[in-house]
Design a protein that fits this description.
The structure is a homodimer. Chain A has about 325 residues and is of the alpha/beta class. In chain A, about 45% of the residues lie in helices and about 15% in strands.
Chain lengths: ~325, ~325
DNA sequence: ATCTAAAATGAAAATATTTTCAACGGAATT
DNA sequence: AATTCCGTTGAAAATATTTTCATTTTAGAT
């Protein structure tokens, strides 16, 4: 069990702590000769700076807190990948905090995040975001909000324009005279659902119609598949739109199980293409949401905020691409 | 911008730092009266202990490093959920480090993990695990290895018994006289693949046969689906086994695309059931890997190691459940 | 009222780093 | 030869906590 501190390095190199610190942090006031001596001492002793002590001395931890719902939703897991990749480039570490619906108290997570003195917080915009934001603002911790359009002094946001996507989708169908468009509403009743609702409503308004095609999975029905299986028994639609990839697959199988053939009898559209939706048969249409990029951009924004670089765009909107019956495979 | 330290609390409550510290840490030597005074001061000032300073003073950070390949593989994302849930219970924070194949230098991650002074490391057993283990052992950082069977003074491990699963699967087919069993080998050529190979080989040996049914996705073929589409053009099997859920779906669609009907012409088996494989049609058989539990158990093991509790079983083997054409949906 | 033991509290050291300010040495200038 | 200046270096303070050890307070016993 070795435990090398900056003292040992200083002794080994016959210099003071200050000089070692300067070498570690790449200060250019150190003479080339001594710098080399210190570096040799560092490698000889296998010294690794203590990030905790650095954090205390600097009041800066090069650490961000990431607060997300379940990581097993494709959208989030890919965002995490993007986020972590960028974090690595800029040498930030990521504390991952997951929210388990109905179990986790978000307040506790915020408490923990404050305690751990992260430099910034990246958080998914859930329903009760407001309280969290307030708490973090009190401590003036820079934030990046994912999934909704908010900004202020210390807050940037990155979101996906589901509203426009659904608007254009509906509009194009309505132009063709297709009006029976059902949208599956997540039983979690989250933000994405409400964006989709807005987009649909607007498109229908444009055509002097009122939208009322939302299909709600009931709260106590934990299985979307089971729900849809009984739903399609006595419902038919021209178009059926699902948000998550797993819901689209469930819809696909529930519908075909009742002899509804896709896409002849019913068009099936998924708002989040994934490796799962893209290899399924019959093929379904889907939107390609840049979730990896979303994570990457969020983290990049965060680094800009933390380094006081100029953030030209505090609310970054990501477009999503519609690929009807996409045949690109991965 | 407020910045309350233990000093302010002490002043407010007319006590010394030591007493405040004792109250924070639930020491029972503090008089009920003063304890109350301190607690009032804490809430009044909105004081939150500084975990960094605590970490420095205690040489303990209540933090673990988690090192994993891509989080967008169901197996890992569910493991993360389990791990984070348990971490929360025991009040540990999790640093997430993802490995991007061919991009990330694992050495750098280990360096970072050491620098950040985590109390322990939970790491997925990839090919070049040995170097990492050595480095972490030098610093006597407790480790939990996921996915392989290793243990030593400071190392525990949790793994899934793919070998036995494949053995029993093959054995049961061989008993029925079915010998044409193909196993899709991940192009990453990872540990799971090698466990599966061992299981198959053993089963065939038991029946005095030699196993040579591995199907290798070539390294330069990034898309399993594309590969399988051309593969099934001129190959047929009685049984086809895939490891990951996405690979099983790809196989399903590639095969049916060539008129091979599942399961009449070919049995399709997936080693990792997920919400995706379980709602797909035609139904496929699959193994239920307890990946959430695997994460949860890993973290629980870690807490035991860190609290010097007795770890009765240093190598924990998780069984996997075979559910032929499972109809449970979620 | 006095003594003793136990309970409660505080002062100060320790944790590993950064940073400011002062000091030193040598080179250039006067 | 003295002075000035710049490039290097080191001493010490600062960061926010815990913990040890000593001291003070309190309660109980005599």
């Amino acid at each position: 069990m070795k435990k090398v501190t900056i003292y040992e390095v200083a002794k080994e190199a016959h210099v003071s702590l200050a000089t070692v610190s300067r070498v570690i942090n790449g200060s250019n006031v150190v003479k080339e000769d001594t710098k080399k001596r210190v570096e040799e001492a560092i490698t000889k002793l296998g010294y690794r700076p203590n990030a905790i002590a650095q954090g205390l001395a600097l009041s800066r931890t090069t650490t961000v807190g990431l607060i997300l719902p379940s990581t097993s939703v494709s959208f989030f897991s890919r965002a995490i990948n993007g986020l972590c990749d960028v974090a690595k480039i800029y040498e930030y570490n990521v504390f991952l905090h997951t929210i388990t619906e109905g179990v986790t108290d978000i307040k506790e997570i915020i408490d923990e995040v404050i305690k751990s003195r992260v430099d910034g917080v990246i958080i998914y915009a859930d329903k009760d975001l407001d309280d969290s934001v307030k708490l973090l603002e009190e401590y003036s911790i820079p934030m990046v909000v994912i999934g909704n359009k908010i900004s202020s002094d210390n807050i940037c946001s990155v979101y996906v324009d589901y509203e426009r996507a659904v608007f254009e989708l509906c509009d194009s169908y309505l132009e063709k005279g297709i009006t029976d468009i059902a949208i599956l509403q997540d039983y979690r009743n989250d933000l994405v659902s409400s964006f989709m609702r807005k987009g649909a409503e607007e498109a229908f308004r444009k055509h002097d119609l009122e939208y009322k095609g939302f299909v709600e999975v009931s709260r106590d029905n934990r299985s979307t598949y089971k729900f849809l299986k009984s739903y399609f028994k006595n419902h038919k639609h021209q178009v059926f739109v699902a948000n998550r990839d797993s819901q689209a697959l469930a819809a696909l199988n529930a519908a075909t199980g009742h002899g509804i053939s896709i896409p002849e009898d019913m068009e099936l559209v998924c708002m989040n293409e994934s490796k799962y939706t893209s290899s399924v048969r019959p093929e379904i249409s889907s939107f390609v949401v840049p979730s990896y990029d979303l994570g990457a951009i969020s983290m990049r924004l965060m680094t800009k905020m933390l380094k006081d670089e100029n953030v030209e765009e505090k609310e970054k909107c990501l477009d999503i691409l519609y690929s009807p019956k996409d045949t690109t495979r991965q």
